[in-house]
Amino acid sequence: MPPQAMHLIRYGTLFGYLGEISPQTCPIHLVKYLFISTSKERLLVQIAVIGSGYVGLVAAACFAELGHKVVCVDNNVERIAALNAGEVLIHEEFLPEVLGRNHGKRLRFSCDSAEAIRGATAIVIAVGTPQGADGQADLSYVESVAHEIAQRSNGYKLIVEKSTVPVYTNAWIQKLMLQNGCAIEDFDVVSNPEFLREGTAVTDFLYPDRIVVGADSDQARKLMREVYAPLLDGSYSRESGAVPGRDNAEEMEYLETSTQSAELIKHASNAFLAMKISFINMVANVSERVGADIEEVRRGIGSDKRIGQKFLRAGIGYGGSCFPKDVAAFQSVARACGSRWNLLEEVSRINQEQIDRFLRKVRKAVGTLKGKRIAALGLAFKGGTDDIRESPAINVIQGLLAEGCKVTCFDPAAMGKAKEVLGKTVTYARDSYAAADNADALLILTEWKEFAALDLTRLCRLLAVPLVLDGRNLYSPETMSKAGLTYYSVGRSNGKNRALDFAMQDGALQLRPTFGD
Predict the structure, then answer these.
(1) Using CA atoms, how far apart are residues 61 and 102, in angstroms rounded to an integer?
(2) Which end of the chain is more exposed for a tag (fewer CB within 10 A), N or C?
(3) Which residues are catalytic?
(4) How would you class 372 by CB atoms within 10 Å of its CB: exposed for 0-12, middle for 13-18, buried for 19 or more?
(5) Phi, psi torsion values for 139, nearest 5 degrees
(6) Which of 100-104, 244-248, 263-267, 471-475 has the lowest mean pLDDT?
(7) Mean pLDDT across 230-255
(8) What is the pLDDT of residues 326-344, one digit of tens each?
(9) If phi over 0 gives left and psi between -120 and 50 gives alpha, with beta otherwise, what is residue 105?
């Protein structure tokens, strides 16, 4: 039996060595690999990562952490200079440590893409794919990188697409390579989508739930297994100084698929998670109107293992660089296939409506907003990151400013990036309590852990009006009431002010609105 090639199929049976598996014989493989090779026998891959944004920087750092020689390339001279100076640039747990121990050894940063391409065996495309006016992903950056790879190639290259792209992008890149004079035997194109959550991206990369590799050749599949070998055989987690993470040796799935399947997996995953968030927000709106508690409802729903608790938290909606863009892009794919995906249109509509509903809640609680002093805790789209792209918190703040409010903000990580968007239209506080000082209301807009552990007695003393509107349901109404705070959250009315009345008529329970939303 060859080393490095003992496959455990997740159907509960150990079949032994199966040889090279192709997508033609089995479209999707749930494969675990038991590598019996020693670390000395393992191939270390020369990798070039094109793009130093969230995906590119984390991927480059983590590939180096796995032992590969990596160069991270970007045409932004200032960004590369900052990275070479030791700056981290994005807020991610464990990223400073991983960059610190690999930079200058197995990881370097460069603006010289030509040199990086020539020296690499695997070239990872991790550039932006922003949403166009029609909802489709803009692939102009991907196209530019593909052209340069074709022009600079000096031997076999494995092109790894990590940017989130629509189906058939891999086939399109292959076509571009051929049109630019590359021989078909001199390259492969692989889809290797990322499933990283901002705030836990390093841990997600090094201890993944699954790794998806969409490849159409044996050579590409073999090289991708070498790239991920320290995760597949569990050796990375046993290294001294490894980033701590859960022991998932028996849980991680390595899926080998066709390129089209891998591309669809990424878009479908994000669309489903966005749908789950919009679904629980819709349930929260019903809960609020009938006098139920969405926190009790979600625990009941999430206790069903088929559903689960993750992404089942009511609030002011999803944001970030992925969900809004990927939902729109998946809708565009559906239209191209001759279908109109009304479900995803409704997911987007509900998400936008959550911001409007929360602003209506603020108006109802505060009264006339013009001239009122509002404290806003949270600027990032979620806790654990400094990313403010499509942030519901920013949208709420902009809505308050449009109505003449004076807003003071605080966020543990996103203040710098928020200043680029909000500028001097708001005041930036040094901490949560400084933001709350003499405010007419305090709004919790991002689920940072420190916002869930505030000194409520101190908060009550500082506020001009002891009023808190919690868009992330970080507290219980009972806790806030004991602290002397008037508290509004999402999907909870504690049985009071029920918006529906009821009566029995002709054997059926009739529900009737008692007042508007």
Answers:
(1) 7
(2) N
(3) 322
(4) buried
(5) -100, 20
(6) 244-248
(7) 84
(8) 888 888 888 888 887 889 9
(9) alpha
